[in-house]
Amino acid sequence: MSLFLIAALPFLGAVFPALLIRAGRNASASAAGMTTFLAFVGLLINAPAVMRGEVVTARVDWLPGLGLNANFYLDGLGFLFAGLILGIGLLIILYARFYLSRQDPMGQFYTYLLLFQGAMVGIVLSDNILLLLVFWELTSLSSFLLIGYWKHLPEGRQGARMALAVTGSGGLAMIGGMLILGNIVGSYDLTVILQNKELIQASPMYLPALILILLGAFTKSAQFPFHFWLPHAMAAPTPVSAYLHSATMVKAGLFLMARMWPVLAGTDAWFYIVATTGLITMVVGAVIALFKDDLKALLAFSTVSHLGLITMLLGFGTKIAAVAAIFHIINHATFKAALFMSAGIIDHETHTRDIKRLGGLRHLMPITFGIAAIAALSMAGLPPLNGFLSKEMMLEETVHTTWLNSPYLVPGFALLGALFSAAYSFRYIGHVFLGPERGDYPAHPHDPPVGLWLAPAFLVLLVVLIGLNSATIVGPLVAVASDAVFGGGKPPYYSLKIWHGFTPALYMSMVATLGGVVLLMGHQRLERIWNALPRPEAKVIFDSMIRALTGLSQAITNSLHNGVVSRYGMIFVVFTVGLAYYAYATGTIGLPTRISLEAPLLPIIGWICLVGATLATVYFHRNRLLALVLIGVVGLIVSMAFNYLSAPDLALTQISVEVVTMILLLLSLNFLPTQTPVDSSMARKVRDTVISIVAGLGTGALVYALMMRDFAFPSISEFHLANSYKGGGGTNVVNVILVDFRGFDTFGEIIVLGIAALVIFALTESVLGTSVRARLLNRKPNWPQSGDAHPMMMVVVTRVMMPMALMVAAYIFFRGHNQPGGGFIAGLIAAIAYLMQYMASGFTWAAERQRFYYHATIGWGVLIAAATGLGAWFNKVPFLTSDYGYIHIPPFEEFEWATAMLFDTGVFLAVLGAVMLALESLSRFAWRPGIASEHPMDINPARDDPPEESASVNTQEKES
Amino acid sequence: MELLLATAVGVLTAAGIFLILRRRTFPVILGLSLLTYAVNVFLFATGRLAVNAPAVLNKYEDVAYTDPLPQALVLTAIVISFGMTAVIVMIALSAYLSSDDDRIDMTAQDDAGDDA
């Protein structure tokens, strides 16, 4: 099966459990299990090739410009990890089906689990470090969902947040490190990077890259001092803990160190950072684990300790140590997953995980006892179980390691760690299962149904089998995986077997086991001392750090962002002007190369009007209605200027937009205050005046300098002029650019316009749903209302003008491709034609006669434009490629027909719908019940008005 | 002609910025409109100025054409700026109707009100 499919399957399958939960919990669990099983089978299909030492690849260029390629590759290391992730994933899915209660939303659980699984598989199969980073962050996010799965528990939420904060920030550091690495090598492909050991280690950026990458790995793998998130993540349901902390999440960091081992390992920096951190983590974790009373906390700290052990082995930098690390990864995954599951069973059946409340369970829960005991003995490192083998290898390696010239330091501490490790493993058996039966269990303990113990039992079987016959069962797997870690080269001599003779490691093992028993016997006394000792509480420290950080960022935000919007505007303008001045002062500017056009009288008059109206707008801006009239003058002159300066399309657009905008602003002024009160002090006004004059001078000078010089680079406009007719079939180049050359831009723009209109509609809906509506209904108008709200003259005129206006719109639309016009302008004109009816005859009258929804008009517009674009695909040309031809229908002149016109129809409809929806929404503020009377608007010459006439006739009769 | 256009853009920009720095919604909307004019004319001017040379191809004789590209860009900019103005007007209106206040600046009391 293709690697793409293996990586994608969990993501694709994640939909099904959430959907199928309606069909029952079994259906949901089966969907999750089926997905994982398929991916697992797909992986196994590749097994023969991997076992032969081949590397399976799948490559697709995704964003080659960024060096981001969707390349996957599967070697021994990836195969081992993917196998662990998918295999243990299957067992977890089975276990979780029986573990979760009816109240837990199981569909969600499996969806999260599959998302996480997909992200993990993605990490271990990625051949591109950028892709790997994407998956890496995805694991942080999806594990957040899993850890916080029990949303109702505060511990769950806090634990999830903590895990996300720690692993997420580590991930950020790692992004930096990976980018540095990619920069050194000049490629983001892992396979390329892994072949450049000398280049990377000789680079001065090696150390920063190493530290950053290790930060990512250490946070993920819960290495000291980042280990504290892991125990808090235990608030998750046990299946999650068993999955995340045995085979997957925390192993991601180890995977990364193993993956980068060929290029990063072997230096002093690597040895002292990685091996030391691992050693400290191993000892600290083991010591704390012995004094934890919560079963899952004990296992959590033991996980921390074992992760430290593997990290230390990788840190040694020798090949044989790397083999031991790989071997221990397998062993730890098997016994730790089984242990977590057994802890879950105990919790499930006795309703407590507190060791102090347990004991004597061996007769009550014999199956669980068997599973837990074997797994725990393996964790303690007792022969003939698999934990013994890798622990022996580890101890053997420590004996050969000198740390700062001291040959005893590393073995000494490793022995201490192993000793405590044996002690807490024995405690897990002794204090839970052995001892006298008690009468005060919170629930009566008994063995669980087979669904719960099957998965751990299978794992324990593996523990025993690997221990007895490791060379056959996992030997080849360890060999190919370790080979992938070395990145080729001659494998070291090692043998996976129980008996190596009387080696130092064997003596150390014996000491550790005996010492473990002794420690456990003195546990009560030790615990009293431990409890009396002052210890730093990681959560308190973490919380106070987070509080300090939030406080700091709030302080910065509040001081910069104090809600005074006019100040932001001021800072923005000043800063922009400063930047522009900096560019001007440091750059060079050539002499003018163009001759100024002469200015006849007409533009001078226009200029005077424009400047006068603009200044008057500012001067009179407190009188809002007057300011509106004045700004209308500005808009008119701008459109005339466009017309004068050879831009007829712009002039048409500007003038129609002007009309619509004025109506909009007038409508809004109906509700807003009519006057702007004086808010600013004199000093402030002077300051603002100075700022705006400087900005205006700068902009004016810039545009003047620009216009007086020719293009610095050849313009692409020549192409458009040359190809407009040949390629686009139209002589109006501006319109051809809009609907053809840059049709994709236009397509985006009509979507934006449509979204803006929908935003307006949604805002209106939400505002009118509040108490605002009542206030609007009881509002006193700003101005005295006109006695005749719908003057008959205006009603008649707009009725007459409506078909004419629509005809103009159609004319402008059809000629658009060859003459000034087109969909944008036609849409605006048609909108104005409709708006006239609203204004003259009133909202209610017009709305009643409206036969189409404006939302749908926008939607149709966008759809038609998109369909036109898609049509190009059927001719095997790219999206939005236009075509044109000539049609001759006998009585008419031959005319041209271009697909661009269909696209322009889409533009027309979208613009029409957007403008209408915006203004209609706004006018709904003014609506009130009972204001509309059909009578004055229903202009019908044939109508007779009996009530009024008869009334007048009656009075006449009476008088006469 | 260039000088006229440049000074006009300068005046429009200055007026627009002055109004944007006011403290009520309506002047800010007016200022944004003025600034929109300035920006559109600025963009248009990057095609350099020409009189009587619209970019409509003439089949019969060879004539000079103005630069069509900035025009196409400005055309959509004008329409989009209408959308933008409409959204801002609606936000201003909704804010005023909901709070009976058309000031754009938050004050210390507003902050206190948010926390409560």
How many beta-strand elements of chain A?
A: 6
* Unreliable stretches of chain A: 948-960
What share of the residues of chain A lie within helices? Answer: over 70%
Give the N-terminus to C-terminus distance of chain A in angstroms. 105 Å
Q: Which architecture of chain B does the CATH hierarchy give at level 2? A: Orthogonal Bundle
The profile of the biggest β sheet of chain A is:
2 strands, antiparallel
The shape of chain B is elongated
Word description of this protein:
The complex is a heterodimer of chains A (960) and B (116). Chain A is mainly α and 960 residues long. Among the domains of chain A are: 267-521, no CATH class; 737-780 and 789-941, no CATH class. In chain A, the strands form three sheets. Chain A has a two-stranded antiparallel ribbon. Chain A is elongated and about 110 Å long. Chain B has one domain: Helix Hairpins (Orthogonal Bundle). Chain B is mainly α. Chain B is 69% helix and 0% strand. Classes of the chains: A mainly alpha (960), B mainly alpha (116). At the A-B interface, helix 27, helix 28, helix 29, helix 30 and helix 31 of A face helix 1, helix 2 and helix 3 of B.
Characteristic key phrases:
A: 960 residues; mainly alpha; two-stranded antiparallel sheet; 42 helices; elongated; B: 116 residues; Helix Hairpins
Task: Summarize, please.
The complex is a heterodimer of chains A (960) and B (116). Chain A has 960 residues and is an all-alpha fold. Helices cover 71% and strands 2% of the residues of chain A.
List the helices and strands and how they pair.
The complex is a heterodimer of chains A (about 950) and B (about 120).
Chain A: H1 3-13, H2 15-20, H3 25-45, H4 47-51, E1 56-58, E2 61-63, E3 68-69, E4 72-74, H5 76-99, H6 106-125, H7 129-147, H8 154-185, H9 190-193, H10 197-202, H11 206-220, H12 229-232, H13 238-246, H14 249-264, H15 268-290, H16 295-316, H17 319-350, H18 366-380, H19 386-399, H20 409-430, H21 450-468, H22 470-473, H23 475-486, H24 504-521, H25 523-532, H26 538-560, H27 565-586, H28 601-619, H29 624-644, H30 648-669, H31 682-707, H32 717-728, H33 733-741, H34 743-768, H35 772-777, H36 792-815, H37 823-841, H38 843-848, H39 854-874, E5 884-887, E6 895-898, H40 899-923, H41 934-937, H42 946-959
Antiparallel strand pairs in A: 1-4, 2-3, 5-6
Chain B: H1 2-20, H2 25-45, H3 68-99, H4 108-115
Helix pairs in contact in B: 1-2, 2-3
